[in-house]
Amino acid sequence: MNRITTGLRRVLAALLVCLAGACHATHPVERNVDVCVYGATSAGVIAAIAAAREGLTVVLLDNDGFVGGLTTSGLGATDVGNKDAIGGLSRSFYRRLRAHYERPEAWTWQRRQDFRSRGLEPDSDAAWTFEPKQAQATFAAMLSEAAILPVYGRLDRTPLGVVKDGDRIVSLRTEDGAVVKARLFVDCTYEGDLLAAAGCAFAVGREANAQYGETLNGVQTAQATKHQFTARVDPYVVPGQAASGLLPGVAATPPGPDGSADAGVQAYCYRLCTTDVAANRLPWTRPDGYDARDYELLLRHFEAGSTLAPWHPVGMPNGKTDTNNNGAFSTDWIGANHAWPLASYAEREQLAAAHRRYQQGLLWTLANDPRVPPKVRAEFQRYGLCKDEFVATNGWPPLLYVREGRRLVGQEVVTEQHCMGKVVADDPVGMGAYAMDSHNVHRYVAADGSVRNEGDVQVRVPAPYGIPFGALVPRRGEASNLLVPVCCSSSHIAYGSIRMEPVFMVLAESAVLAGALALRRGIPVQDVPYAELRQALVARGQVLQWPVR
After folding, report:
1. Residue 505 neighbours by CB distance under 10 Å
2. Residue 45 near residue 136 (C-beta atoms within 8 A)
3. How far out from the chain centre does Cα 288 lie?
4. Between the CA of residue 492 and those of 269, 439, 499, what are the distances in Å?
5. Tens of pLDDT along 259-272?
6. What Cα–Cα distance (Å) separates residue 423 from each residue in 418, 430, 469, 491?
7. Residue 160, pLDDT score
8. Which of 176, 218, 297, 352 is least buried, going by the fewest C-beta atoms within 10 A?
9. For residue 17, how many other CB atoms are within 10 A of its CB?
10. Are 464 and 80 in contact (CB under 8 A)?
11. Which residues have a Cβ under 8 Å from the Cβ of 282 and sit 6 or more positions away?
12. Nearest-CA neighbor of 312 among 277, 351, 271, 350?
């Protein structure tokens, strides 16, 4: 009996992991539900569960083929700012992870007492640092409890993709011809594809400081002192000879004046799950199409005196890391992603493949090129991808880290003033607490003929601040039954603070609770009475004020 029980548990566990990764329900040609959640990101998962808890029928459309977004695709060292600002289902997710790591059997490659990294502090009720596969299993369990099985489907982005009756969305159509009719739609994608197809106003890139009276928006050269070249590096193929052409990744023209608007998007990368546990380590591989010229700037920077390892690994349980960018030339591929937000699916697939090839080539170079300082080379030789993570993609995370796509221009726009506490939302539905953080956007030739990065901004906020309900709501007359918790209405620099996975989850739950009120009253989402919404949010454990009382 014990063997049978153990076997059943293993089968169930495998099914749950499958659910969180790549398994989906087969959908009929047409489905009619109360709520359609488009995008199975972490926010999408929470939105679907919140809808089910409200007694609403729901379909969760997965446009990426991998459930959980960046939370399950390598971003296991959670960026959040002040963790006490996170409540509701979002905090429940992190509490479940904490319960998992309190069990001795959770520790396979490392002893619990040997884990010294952040994210499992003794005085916390939650785990903010975790393995991707455990995030997958946790989301899968939560979805299973809510009887939700994601359906794979990408929005048909032709004019046939969204049908409206006046300002009300009636249905959406997927590429394979399936139709979902719903009374409420929630766009939980990182790109904002549904809000755009529904005819809502949006922004891409950086607004000028003058547009919203900000100081940190638009082009930023003076601010860009971090993740910057620390020595003079020549940008030309033949050093000192401009006629030889620029090395890959260097823009032919400099950015505009500081504070001016442009269409640039902060750099993307893959968040890597790596390990130095030999028994669980996969070696770096040289990708097909490798071109050493792509890394010449890095090697010249080393030769000019830099000794910085261009990555930032944060320890996770079981001898693993969540590894992000670090330094002037790193896993962030500056300038290569500007087309992503508006690109077609085919173009995005090409861009994702190019980013993967770039990053794989970078890692192989760091571990093998003799021009890399021996200490740095030895560090990269010690690490590799994890055999027991992302098994279907040979240890490589499935999703590119899309740090920003479109941003709704909604009923209210969150700006630098909200983040700094100079403007206080009177209708908060969640809280932001992370620094205003923009990664570099351009790499260019400075006036002295050296290469420089532009766009990095890192400015702390003084305290957690409220994110207004109006930032989740399209402008009146555009879409009366659509809510946007991920690509919410904010300036570029404010979004740099908001764009944290726990915050996305908080806003998703709040959006669905607002939508449920709208459905019960038969009113547009723009007309949801905030006093009643606030009561519902507080009842669900959302944090709406600071300090918490």
Report:
1. 33
2. no
3. 27
4. 18, 11, 10
5. 999 999 999 999 99
6. 5, 15, 14, 14
7. 94
8. 176
9. 17
10. no
11. 384, 385, 386, 387, 394, 395
12. 271
CB 491 within 8 A of CB 217: yes
| Cα separation of the two ends of the chain | 50
Three-state DSSP class for 199? coil
CA distance 10 to 203: 46
The two beta strands, 482-483 and 179-187, are: parallel
Residue 465: partners with Cβ closer than 8 Å, 6 or more residues away:
418, 419, 420, 421, 424, 425, 431, 432, 433, 546
Dihedral Cα 191, 195, 199, 203, nearest 10 deg: -50
The answer to whether the CB of 405 falls within 8 A of the CB of 191 is yes
Assigned token pair, 50: 């919140």
Do 429 and 511 touch, CB atoms closer than 8 A? yes
pLDDT of residue 27: 55
φ, ψ dihedrals at 44, nearest 5°: -65, -40
* Protein fold of 2-204+464-539: FAD/NAD(P)-binding domain (3.50.50)
Q: Which residues of the chain, if any, have pLDDT below 70?
A: 1-23, 25-29
What does the DSSP assignment read for 377-404? HHHHHH-EEETTSSGGGTT--SS-B---
- With tokens 């709406």, the residue in question is 544
Query: Tokens 């402008």 label which residue?
Result: 475
Q: Where are the alpha helices (DSSP H) in 269-391?
A: 296-303, 345-368, 374-382
Query: Which neighbouring-strand residues pair with 30?
Result: 179
pLDDT score, position 108: 96
CA 64, CA 393: separation in Å to the nearest integer?
14
How many whole angstroms separate alpha carbon 46 and alpha carbon 502?
10
- CA dist 499 and 492 (Å) reads 10
The residue whose two tokens read 């990408």 is 154
Domain boundaries, the chain: 2-204+464-539
| Single-letter residue type at 60 | L
